[in-house]
Amino acid sequence: MENVLSPAVSDSVKSAAKDAQKLGQDVKAGFDSAVARGRDIASHLASDARTATGDLSDHAKETLEDGRNRASRAVGRVSDYADENTTIVALAAFGAGLLVGYLVTRRN
């Protein structure tokens, strides 16, 4: 089969094909680079998120433990007060019972 194109046109077509192939390789290299950067960014973001949630979890645990300690101390103080002032606590409970009984049985 004989080439019907002139040598200048043939060289121009070959050059255009090489340029297109090089452009395709450059685009692929750029895409691969962008994907690698995206993966790296996602990895750093995931790492930062794990660190932040770990810090929040630690803070929540500390806060919960502090709340438990405070509640335990408050219960201890109430219990100590009730032990030391049994008469006052009994009278207060009796009075509260009378008040609740009155409120429940009164008519509208």
Secondary structure elements and pairings:
Elements: H1 7-84, H2 86-105
Number of strands: 0
Shape: rod-shaped
| SS-based class | mainly alpha
Mind summarizing the main beta sheet? none
| Quaternary structure classification | single chain
Mean pLDDT: 86
Strand fraction: under 5%
What is the rounded distance between the termini?
Answer: 113 Å
Low-confidence stretches: none
Order of helices and strands: HH
The tally of helices reads: 2
Structural Rg: 41 Å
Give the % helix.
Answer: over 70%
Structural notes for this entry:
It is a single chain. The chain has helices at 7-84, 86-105. It is mostly helical and 108 residues long. The radius of gyration is 41 Å and the shape is rod-shaped. The chain starts with 6 loop residues before the first helix and ends with a helix. The model has no long low-confidence stretch (mean pLDDT 86).
In short:
This protein has two helices and no strands.
Descriptive terms for the model:
108 residues, mainly alpha, 2 helices, 91% helix, rod-shaped
